[in-house]
Structure to design on (351 residues):
């Protein structure tokens, strides 16, 4: 106060007023929040990852087992389970390799295997965790993205032993880097993974890969009469489509995705097409099937190697529409109404 008269008293008075104002203001904010039951959830807004309690995972797992009790029988076979997991990991997984030894932050980081998916697939990953002996943890980021993270040596080693020799994409190179990292850091002798070339129809890899990147589509074209603007009338048409898309170049492994997409195209009796997506006009390879006879082959495969996640609902709806078309019931008014109802169910599932 630069030696003004009674400066100390003025300073004390100002300090008391400041503290009082802040206290009363915070009291009013808290009181108003309680009165209106106002819940502020910053996690989804700021997209901060937070842990999902294990109690919640346990409840979801019980519900998942009840709903999928028949389908999961396929994956009680360990070989089927790890082929499925390999396909899922190549589609929705990430293999994280930190630096060996002490880093610049003076910490030793462990490698991690991370699955990223929509929250609707939490039941699927809870089941995978149970099959892996309860290893790993869950996080939710934003409002609808989950991560299943395996960061302990026991869990990583278990997965590596299970999926080694089952990878088909360029991510196999990254898998071998992880194996070499684990061998060096923990003095293990895990064998390197050889790219799998077995028939896609002989195992569940394609089911896991579809769970990550597959799409079951239904297209309904309404009939339109001839008019002044339309020279020809448009007949009502219903069609099904199965599609798999992949970026043409796998940047982490500096490898082209064309070889695996060509094998998938051959498996589905289709061709590899190319399109570009904005804003960078990145090249994408696409394999699709629309023929009813070819779709029948896909349905036969997924009836044997079941989908377990959110895609399973789409597939079941898609299969029901196929049955209606195959039996010619789509030519009747009742059949067309039923198809529209099923298509609406698929839209609601995606929402």
């Amino acid at each position: 106060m630069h030696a003004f008269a009674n400066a100390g008293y003025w300073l004390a008075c100002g300090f008391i007023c400041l503290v009082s104002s802040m206290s009363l203001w915070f009291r009013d904010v808290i009181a108003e929040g309680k009165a209106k039951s106002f819940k502020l959830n910053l996690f989804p807004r700021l997209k901060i990852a937070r842990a999902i309690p294990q109690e919640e995972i346990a409840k979801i797992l019980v519900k998942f087992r009840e709903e999928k009790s028949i389908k999961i029988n396929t994956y009680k076979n360990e070989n089927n389970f790890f082929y499925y997991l390999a396909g899922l990991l190549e589609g929705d997984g990430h293999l994280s390799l930190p630096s060996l030894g002490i880093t610049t932050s003076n910490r030793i980081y462990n490698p991690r295997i991370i699955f990223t998916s929509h929250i609707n697939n939490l039941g699927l990953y809870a089941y995978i965790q149970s099959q892996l002996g309860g290893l790993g943890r869950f996080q939710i980021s934003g409002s609808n993205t989950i991560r299943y993270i395996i960061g302990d040596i026991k869990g990583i080693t278990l997965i590596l032993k299970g999926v080694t020799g089952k990878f088909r994409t360029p991510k196999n190179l990254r898998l071998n880097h992880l194996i070499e990292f684990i061998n060096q850091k923990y003095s293990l002798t895990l064998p390197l993974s050889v790219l799998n070339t077995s028939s896609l129809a002989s195992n569940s890899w394609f089911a896991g890969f579809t769970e990550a990147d597959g799409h079951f589509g239904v297209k309904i074209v309404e009939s339109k009469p001839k008019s002044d603007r339309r020279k020809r009338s448009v007949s009502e048409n219903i069609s099904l489509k199965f599609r798999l898309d992949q970026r043409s170049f796998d940047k982490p492994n500096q490898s082209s995705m064309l070889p695996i997409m060509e094998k998938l195209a051959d498996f589905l009796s289709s061709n590899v097409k190319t399109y570009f997506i904005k804003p960078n006009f990145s090249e994408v390879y696409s394999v699709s099937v629309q023929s009813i006879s070819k779709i029948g082959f896909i349905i036969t495969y997924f009836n044997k190697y079941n989908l377990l996640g959110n895609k399973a609902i789409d597939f079941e709806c898609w299969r029901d529409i196929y049955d209606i078309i195959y039996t010619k019931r789509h030519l009747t008014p009742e059949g067309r109404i039923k198809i529209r109802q099923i298509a609406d169910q698929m839209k609601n599932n995606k929402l």
User: Anything to note?
Assistant: The chain is about 45% helix and 15% strand. The longest helix spans residues 7-35. The two ends are 63 Å apart (CA to CA). Residues 36-44 have pLDDT under 50 and may be disordered.
